[in-house]
Fold each of these.
Amino acid sequence: MTRMDSSRRYGLLAAAALTLGVTTAGLVAPATGAPISGPLSFADWANEVWSSARMGQSDTMFELLDTLPQNHELAAVESLRERLDRRNEHLEAAEAERHERLNEAWVELDEHLAEHDLSETLRTAVEIYSLSDDKASVLENDKIAALVAEAEQAANAAEANGEWLEAQEILFRLNLLFEDDQRYEDDLNRTSTRLMMIRLYAPERLHDMRNERRIEDDLDPLPPFNRMGEDWHEKLEGIDDPNVVVRAINHAQLAHVDGADMTDLLTGALKNVKTLVTTTDIAVAFPRLRDQAQVDEFVSELDRLIEGLEARRGNTDGWDLTRTLRKVIQANGSTVDVELAALLHEFGNGAMEELDQFSGMIWPDELRQFQKTTQGRFTGVGIQIQLDDAQRLKVVTPLEGTPAQRAGVLPGDIISAVDDESTIGITLSGAVERITGERGTPVTLTIEREGREDPIKVELIRDEIPIYSVKGWQRNGPRETDWNWFIDEENHIGYVRLTQFADGMTREFDNAIRQMRREGDLQGLVLDLRFNPGGLLTEAVELSNRFVSEGVIVSQHDATGREREVQKARRSSTTIGDIPVVVLINEGSASASEIVAGALQDHGKAVLVGARTFGKGSVQNVYDIGRGLAALRLTIQYYRLPNGRLIHRRPNMQEWGIEPDVTVEMSPTQIGEALRVRQDADVLPIDDRGNVVMDGEAPDPGSLLRDGIDMQLETALLLVQSQSIAKKHGLAMLTPDDHAALQGG
């Protein structure tokens, strides 16, 4: 390492003249590994905090934070000390609450065991597991081991008796207990697949099943079932050509990143068809499934086909695919007579389930939603809706400038009918399906409003509704772009939250940064990527390029590790200068979010705070295999970060995703409360003229920090504040190289 010249060295020392006189015994400088001894200037301290965080030395970082003295003469330092103390209080309170709840949960476990309440016992066991530091010891506990054995038997019995909801609930909780080895994943997928089939082909039966469970649990019954938007024929309209499925499976076998054996694809397809015809609850859609003899004959033919394929394993090809599908169609026609669209739907889905979880068929109804998701555009009337406690369709808020807002739809309105069809008992997906539609087409909503005796009919013309992916700290106006972007106005620290990587997201980000710079000197940034499921690679690369000026951002590799494509930074696209940046990540950060976080981490442009990400680092191509009515989404490559890391979680891998530099865990309760506060703060009621209407104070996200609800955000902000305060008050900011040179002197 090049040694610093003496004038530069002493110049930095002079600039760092404000001495804190902190105790540094036992601390080690992250940049050098040398012990830190003697008094540190604030600049030294701030630099060591940042360096230790960036190098993943969380313990050192937190120890350094605690060395900041009380009652400092500089007000900004004293204010930072108060925030640090408040965080420590929040941490202590959270830990105390966790230990108290953990002890209570063990007591409750014994009570539920004595009452032979398997459902509540399992739920409590999962809570104990999530609250415990030593998760392995929880699973080794005799009570938990006996509970797991009992739950396995109960799940098998429920599945054998056709009690699919109960089986799924048990397996879901078992899967949470054993999430690392995923031993119950196949069983859970099987029962979930059955329920998805019931949801598609016999939604009223699923409604009844759920209603029965609610009544058993002493809950209010559901409203009567509403068929609006629930006709499976409409959802599968256009699936009438077997060649669509043949093309998809052939292409998957040839192009999937990990390869695909035709025998596996076909046996998966046949087993899924077998699941379809043995799910008796869907006989309302396919009456001949009530004839057990016909079902048995068809299942026997499926089993014979599976045996034949297994006998030829390694030698099956496209001819076997065509022959197998033809035989299935023929056998179906002479036995159970399931409609061709449903047969092709389940045959194709079963084959794709043998690949990875991100490959699959995109059927007609799904294709429309897929295009909306990736393009960030959809047509509708511009309202956010939810089902309230009474299962009524309620308007959360109209979006500014949309048909609903212009027509006078208000927050809290109840939509009692769509095009004169009642919404009582409707599902949320069914409501969305009916209210949205082609641009320029009409839809009539019947509105019930508090204080109005008679219903209001509102005729709307659907239009394209812009989707905004970039959000700030606090809403301050009716438009989706009206935000206070500063989470700390005193120290000019910005906050940007990205909800997805949709088309135009980086342009929105640029606008937010420009607005912050117009309003003040941007001194730091918190970039929140938590619960961001990803989106377009182009947007991920563009956003990363705003921070990274040169070098690789991400590359794509095939299963052999061969590089197929690489995206590099362009210096002209870098707009974020040398300011401290903290990126928030968690288990819900996936795909494009992981690319951005990983690229900034590898290039040393940000400190990552939170929890390990989801681990979705694969490349999917979408192929039109059905004349625009259906498509194939297929994994063809894996992403690697600049340092060569593989993001994707593959089977039996111990490492995946992006590990934060500073790990800050949050309990499920904290996460839920943080999401609730954030959601409430993001919505401002507006009237029919587009003006904000406030009966009281504006929703305030500040409780996330004041009340210790969001410990990840609180930690991130403290890190950025430590840097911005040093810079703001003219205290020298030492780089790792500078500090190493000083130590060497």
Amino acid sequence: MAEKMEDDIRWVKTHCGRMDHGGCALLAGVRDNTIVKIKGDPDGFLNRGYVCAKGLASPGRLDHPDRLTHPLRRTGGRGEGKWERISWDAAIGTISENFQRIKEEQGAKGVAFCQGMPKGIEHFVLIRLANVFGSPNVVSVQDVCHAPREVTGLHTCGFYPVADFHWKTSLALVWGSNVTSTNEEGEICTLLLEQLRGGAQMIVVDPRQTELAKKADLWLQLRPGTDTALALGFLNVIVEEELFDKEFVEVWTHGFEDLARHVKGYSPQKVSEITWVSSDLIREAARLYARSRPAAIQWGNAIEQHTSAFDTARSLLCLMAICGNLDVPGGNIQANEPNILPLGKFVRADLLPNKWKEMIHTFHHAIPKLMTVPPAFLRKAILEGFPYPIKGAYVQCSNPVMAYADSRMTVDAVHQLDFLVVADIFMTPTASLADVVLPVATQFEFNDIGHYGLGHGYILARPKVVEPPKECWSDIRILNALGRAMTSKEYWFDDPDNLLEALLRPSGRSYGQFVEQGYLKGEDRFRKYESRGFSTPTGKVELCLSTTEKFGLRPLPEFSPLPADDSEYPLVLTSAKDPFYMHSSYRWVESLRKKSPDALVEIHPQTAFKLNIHEGEEVVIETRQGGITQVAHLTDGVHPRVLNAAYGWWFPEADITASTTWTRSNYNILTSAQEVGKEFGTPNLKGIPCRIRAAA
């Protein structure tokens, strides 16, 4: 049952969302339209009763006194904080009028539809709205999260290989992933920890000594930004020592001899000099992965936050393939979706058949099949008009001023827009610059479906638990209303919940029936290539890409040399997500802020001693891009030459109109979007030359 009564509390089953990718089954205790308690559901498909601090604190989003509760229209200059309250009819009318005007003047492609990390089906309703409106430009941060793994997988083996911890694995190679701290696209830590308790071994590749690194059989503390070199070093050992799956390689791979010759140049000794990982440890880890069958690579989005994201993903895909770990239980699988409406049909891709030819990043020769615009290319279009001007933007589930590399560039771009709409639950630095701000419902206040489109082979029920404030609308409802106002009503519904019903219709279930069941999972089918081959031009895993000339891609993964050592900036900067926040969100939730009150930069005690830096004091971190202030935390969990700075920090308790609110501790003041990877438009968010000093 979805609900049950206990004393005067009504317990509702749902799944967590919008505090991360979500996935944990929850029991929400409700009294008088208020969530009074959250606990993990022991029957949870993914979490088995586990729930993190963010999930427990999630009701704190609903009743915050500074929550946005009615639509606002700007009356002063951008960022001056002058607003007037308007009705929803006026808000929808204003947005429709301005976007239609831009469409008439610039064409529909002059309006960009922007999303942060997908939180539910609102991402796909947004794509549907863009397609129906006629704009090819859906903008997302997938350049640094998900797309390099997924799209590179499509080109290499025809699918996105996800770690399968539902079946027994011999070894987990956790590479740039920290699932006990932050949720990686539904890879809840519970399943991995169960594998370890069942005897699986674990290798962790991470610049930081995470909790998983402490549990690992082997921890490879690599220099940030050198993942590609390390993976190629693994391949060198496995090929030279003939530890690969000879039968799979012979029958199901294309270009093995090319790869074998190529990786001769990445000996453990050479790779050790690049990565700071000892050659003996590289050999030991490579041998352990190759000899463990099956083995799963749990790869996190940290590997996607360098200009070399394509090569890193390619290298790890080659590892999975030559060791026979693709689409086998307990390896990296092609998850099978349940019988639901396919993405293309849901977003009405048929209405924009030439979308790829018109998207902004096509003109930058990005990799085919990348279907969201990288932020670096969006801002170039706004600021420079290349390949054509962008004059309007709709932003939901995102805070680009904080989330995009080079925050000052983002602010400059926003000031160049004719019209900006932001939908959020709180007045963020980005919302403060908008023309119209829309108050949205939180996850517990509307019906939703989790994990649609993520490629993990299941969807999760997220039913409404309580009613939202009167004028707070769900993103789905807002987009449905905008669709009815700006486009033909035939593509939209009187009741936005009918979008959920349409998605589920092929399964033969109503949304109510889906909620009763809790989740839908595709059937387990493995080694599908044995009957149909791989969905690539050669029908095999393309260790050496056959589409090199056609798409302008490198045939084999290569490590791009790091910038020369800079005596003025002798340290290496990296970052990690805070386990108590989601990117820039929720620092205004009191219970979470108490757990993580300061923007902490991790520094090794030896380095701190040399620079006369002490625990808990303010420090200034600088790159050639700029400088910020954070608070020193001394730990030997980072390398003496590495700083791990806090990401996503702004101060919601401060004056939103003051630039220091978002510049003082914001990691993306330190990053640049001038140089990006060609394939995905990915900037360097990690591995950046830096320095640090005491603020005093």
Amino acid sequence: KSENLTLWVSGASEEGIYFDQLRIKETGQFWYCMIFFVLAAGIVVLGCIFCAAWHHLHRIPLSDFAVAGGILVLTALLSRPFLMNWLCSIGDVSYHLERIFGVAESLADGVFPMRLEANFPFGYGYADGVLYGSTLLYIPAILWLIGFPVLYSYNLFIILMNFATIAVAFWCFRRMFRDKYIGLMCSALYAFSRYRITVLYGRGCVGEGCAQIFLPLLLYGYYRLLAEDAEEESYKRTWLLLAIGYSGVLQSHVLTCELALAWTVVVCALNVRRIFSKPVFMQLLKGAVATLLCNVWYIVPFLDYYLTQDLQIKNYGIRRIQLEGVTRDLVFAHFFEGILVDGQGMPIRAVGPGLIPMIALFVFLALGVFARKKKSGLLAACGLCACLSGLCILFSLKAFPWDWLQDAVPIAARIISNLQFSTRFLNWGTLFLVPAFGYCLWYAKYESPWRKALYALGVAAVVLAVGTSSMYYIYQITHTYDKVRMFDDNLVFGYVSGGEYLIYGTDVAKLSYDMPRASENVQLLQYDKGNLAADFRCVNASGTETGYVEVPLFLYKGYQARTGTGERLECAYGDNNAIRVLIPPDFQDTVSVRFVSPVYWRISEAVSWGSMAWLLAYCLLKGRKRKQDRKSWTIF
């Protein structure tokens, strides 16, 4: 029911737009969603029945049920803003909505994997799919295709992302400290960290948020690689952690992957003697090869475009990153009381790690003085994490002389500029702080003479960090930014954020949903445009002059123009880097313009699909073998 209904039409047409009839009718979206929820509920019920039956036969420990309940409660608390029927209108949310819509359109057109996104910008196509990993975006895209409105597809995806982050972090820290409850508390600290909340809630950076799911896998992988016994049978599977971790980060956010590789070099350099022992080096080599083979389908097109195409991202000037760093007072702040939007209306980036994680860092340093012989492998690993976290926090400070470094070392100026802002170091700084806190909990529980009191104090610190600092920050964000409700894709159009992957020289201000243009000697008889495609029929009556037809598609590598007889026509850059199809003299035929992936892209895809199939088969066989002799069963 609605007392007032407004139809709003926006466009650049010079002619009038007339409506003969307007009909409003119900779609099948609601029923598609209901069918999905019924199927999902059925799966959950069957899972509960299976667990109950297994518990009756094998007695699942009650602690496992408690931990599972804790993960669900943490997910619900963390996802509270996304349980509403609105979105915060912030940062890059609209950009990632368009990416999701582009993946959905690609699936609907039968194109997999997606390379160019058809709706970016104004139907010209955008190389976002080649240069920015979109693998996890297939989840909300499928929800969109099922029938979920834009709003719910995005919110459900963020909820799933929060659950995955908590679950993966719990699994890693539980195995690192060999304690379920310490693992749960460490996962809470990581998932509720202020930097992660800033990324997803304050800036809408979905790609970086997806990468944060996999960072704990890399941390735990290197812990096993460098701190555990290389003779153990389970050690031989360490390369799997590295392969999955690097693959997930690469497919989610390239800049986070670059920082991951940088910290990998640092960690390996600090442990060079152990790295070059045969068992450790073989695990590292296997992880690198598996990562390369499973991701070559993405790496080959990425390098192809980055090396051969003149893109905006390669032509940016030197950007200063020091100005937006963290002020010193924010490093130890428990409640963030700063402004959430800067003078240009952009969301904040500088937030700091928080008071309780920083206190834990100093407590850990104190423990290191007199606890050197207690669990030495774990202590050494957590000590390295503590040192790296201090470096990350130092690099993120506004006082760190990044501007001076860029001026003094010209070679490093471009590398530093590519970071975009120094607060990216807090991504890793936050992660490195968690093992230091976890070791304090472990020491209080297992080694301290005042175990109960100190462990209770540690638990209270976690509750305080999550329940006050993080929840207050979430409340602040959700009550500061404007909210928007969108249920269809009519608000998704043409926004390309910084336009990093546009062809260099493109003027976005001149773009619109445009018609083709033809030279004076070419007559356009028929025209039809689809996603990343255009078909037209034209006549060039001139017997000597070559003409052209310019279609509203960007000339990225891979586009081809062919006649109705299969003859290939030459394509050149037209106005604003659009595709200009050169029409030869005495020409009268249809022309089809299509994006065609090069053959070597397809070969790389075949290599990756084969590698992933082998990896999946390997994991299933190893998992079945480990369960054959297992007499008891636990969830965690």
